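Let us work through a complete example step by step.
Step 1: write down the sequence.
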Amino acid sequence: GVAGGGRAGGGADALAELMRSPKKPSWSMSLDLAGARSALKRFSERAGGGKTAAGAMFVGGFTTTLCLRDMPYVPAALIGSAGGAYAVQLPQGNAIGDSTRQIGQQVASLWDLGAAACRGPTRRR
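Step 2: predict the structure and record it as tokens.
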């Protein structure tokens, strides 16, 4: 040890050795788009569709923002959206999962109707 005239050892020696090493550590980061696309597809299928999941996440974020008024809006909305995303993944037959999917579908339908109304009447040729 240090009292016996030796070196301190431990992490400092390992760090010093790493710094002297001719071989520098290399870092690499990659993004697996195929894996992400596959995971998103599975998420959408379990949720009953992408619009259903988006509707449930919107309702979760909006409701949590209203209920947690003392919390800043963005974190409250993120917490609620995450809760909605989790709830739509619950298996069929689960009361919370089924009701969340149903609400998500209703919100998505309402969104589609509102978007169609904003576009105006379509002309037939």
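Step 3: interpret the result. Residues 60 and 117 are 25 Å apart (CA to CA).
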